[in-house]
Amino acid sequence: MHPDSVDVTVPDAVTIHDVTQGEEMSSTKTDSENALPTTEAEIDELRQEIDRLDAEILAAIQRRSEVSQLIGRTRMASGGPRMVHSREMKVLDRFSSLGQEGHTLAMLLLRLGRGRLGR
After folding, report:
1. What is the 3-state secondary structure (H, E, C) of 47-78?
2. CATH code that applies to domain 37-114
């Protein structure tokens, strides 16, 4: 192995959680599908996939923020608190599998979902 190279292990099976249906799907890839890209065209394909995933993530975050803000307004209109600490702790816990970056991501999502606190 070249001194500057990195050994990357890719799992044979990947489990994906379908957030729209709450179902778990399993996808098994062959060794050839797990092979590192060797051409610029293959890298470009992967970049296009990242762009598509980014678009999906952005749409999901925007929808999550809208729903969260609606819940907050509804709770306040009925005399309840806008935020529920125990609920926010559950969100933080859900992202803990990603480590410190997951905690940071969860905090950003919570902040986006709160909207402007003065409203």
Report:
1. HHHHHHHHHHHHHHHHHHHHHHHHHHHHHHHC
2. 1.20.59.10
